[in-house]
Every structure is written in structure tokens, then in C-alpha cells.
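Build the 3D complex.
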Amino acid sequence: MEKITVRTFLEECRRDLKLELLAGEKGLDNEITQVEIHRPGLALSGFVDIFSYERIQVLGNTEVAYLDSLSERERTVALNRLVEFEIPCIVITNKNKIFAELIRLCDDRAIPVFRTPLTTTQLVHALGNYLSEKFAPRIAMHATLVDVYGIGVLITGRSGIGKSEVALDLVERGHRLVADDVVNIIRKGDDVLIGMSNELLQHHIEIRGLGIIDVRSIFGIRAVRKQKRVEVEVHLEDWDEEGNYERVGLDDNYADILGVKIPQVRLPIFPGKNITVIIETIALNTLLKIYGVDTAKEFNKRLLKRISYQKKLKEYLEHDTE
Amino acid sequence: MVEKTVTVKNKLGIHARPAALLVRTAAKFKSNIYLIKDGQTVNGKSIMSVMSLAAEPGSKIVIRAEGEDEKAAVNKLAELFENKFEED
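Done.
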């Protein structure tokens, strides 16, 4: 998302951030386009050469104490410097006092002013989280996301290959469904992908021949999960004689989702193959790798040791000219 | 049935990576494929079997294929040994 309106921000954060609207109601359709937050201390004191006015402006104890120290006329001048810019909105923290000049100016300039009892640190933290999630890169993928032994397994593959059936099988074995068919994925920071269900679909699965089933109603709360970090992708594909499938697991394949690389396993399927058990094993193997054990590498080390032993033995025997 | 004796020429011998290349290549042929080292015969399409040979550099391996494309299979696999499994 590239922008949200102040109205949306108010509706979604009013409760958590305990916001009360004091002025500038006409400006509720102002747009917030920046994920960062700004404290305009320097701008109030006159330095506006560099002023990140397009961000949400937070007036904390410092700013309010400074404004309080000014005469009424000086305060109007200081606040004027602020509001002559196209500011999306202002938030006053710590339930600080409100200046009549601020209310008047912001009503005139249609800049919403909110007040919260939260401290500046609390507000900046909560608001930062909210904004970074709102502005996070996102993608909707045709896939299924299941929490298998605590590992977020994203199951992909062509329509009808059996992603939902595998998910159902996993749920039946005690794993937790996050989303089926449409997985909304957002990127947090540089390297974390969080997957969640579409608001409407929630924990419903479509099983061909059966129709839509509600996993939560059937299997209970333990069978579902709201969101989960995506840690490995299992790509189901039709068995192909020519397909170069991984045989050892030494070469790590990666999938790129929103610029984040996650391990990818290409899994050829055919009748009679128990995909569920294989996916459980993939999850556990991923867990092992996270804990620093790479089975394929360890095994190859053993093999190389054995080979070099045989080589040495042979050389020894060859040079033993008794 | 076609047989051909080859030598392991790459420095590290048939460790996991060359073994994977061998079985992936072998799997493309319809013939049954066997690798024989020091009298031990293993299925050339099974990675664990091929690795169990622990074939060291300099060792001799007999490639045996039985089936409609046996000749092509043996030649293709011999080529891998000759090219040092694209290693070194």
C-alpha cells in the first residue's frame, strides 16, 4: 500500500492508540504516504530548511514544553511555521495540554489533531508498527500455508494438484492451517515474510468433490492459526521423467518472494506417494537446518572421509613392496 | 547387455554431488543400469547405492546397462566419468 487516509488511520488505531480528535476534522481525507514519524521540534523553533512535513508529526513533552515557554504571539508564529506545510496530521502524546492557537490554526488549515494518553515512546513504537505493516510490500499468492511443527510451509503448485487435500491431511495429523488457496504475504523488515489468510476466506478450504469446509468448526481452534512466518516453500509438481529432481539435498534451491529468499523444495508427486509425511519431514529437516544440522552436508563429509580412507589404503598396499 | 570399464578421474571420487549427477543421468534411460566396483554391484539409479560404493579417485568401475537404450546409456555415463563429473 502506498498511502492511507488519516480517516483510515483514525478508524484502525483509535482504540489501540486511544486517539481523540481535537481539531481539523475537515482534513480527515489527508493522505499519509510515509512510514516514518517526525518530531517537529526544530521546525517549531524556526529551522525548516529540512523538515519532513509529509510525515505524521508527533508533539511530545519537549515540543509542548517549548511551546508553553513562548508568549501567545510567539507561539502563533512558531505553530504557523509548522502548519504552513502540507502536514497529514498531528498527534499530541502524554495527554499534554492543548493550545487554543493550535486548534484554531489546524481547523483553518484542515490538519487533524489527535491526542493520546500514551507516552511518546509508546506511541512511536505502536504507530511505527502499524505504519510499517500498512506500508509493507505485499503479495497475494495462489498457495496454501500450514504451520507444520512450528515451521511455516508454503505449498504451491498448479491448480488441482492437491494443495488443499494435503493441507487437510496435515490438519488431520495435528498441524495448523493458516490459509488455503489465497495467502496474503507481507514482508517485514528485509528478510521476514508473514503469511495470513484473506479476510473473507479465513479457515475455509475447498475440497474438490466435497465443496467448502470450515476447518475451524470441524477440527477446532487448535487446527488453525492466524498468521505465520513463511519459512520454506514446497512446490508440488506432476512427475516428469525428465525432471531433474534433487537427490541429495546439497544444493539449496530458493524461491524469491518479495525479494526475500526462502528455501524451496520441488516435490514431484504421483499416486501412492504420501506427500503429507514428506512435508512433515521437510518441516523437520528445515528445523534441523535452522539449528545448524545439514544432513546432506554431514553425510557427504562421512562419504568423503570414507573415500579418502580407501584411497590411502590402496596407496599403502600399492607401495608395500614386500 | 553392454558393459564398459571406466576410471574415476575426479579428485574427490564419487561423493554426493557426482553420485547425484550419475543417478539423475541414469534415470533418463529406460535400461536397467548397474555400477560394479570390486565385485560389488549396485543399482545405478539409486543414489544411496551409488554412494555406498565410496569410489575413490583412480578406482575402476564397470558400467552395465540392460535394455533398449543400453548402448546410449553406457556411453552417456562413461562420458560423465571422462569429464570428471564437471568437477576439478
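Chain A touches chain B through 19 residues (CB under 8 Å).
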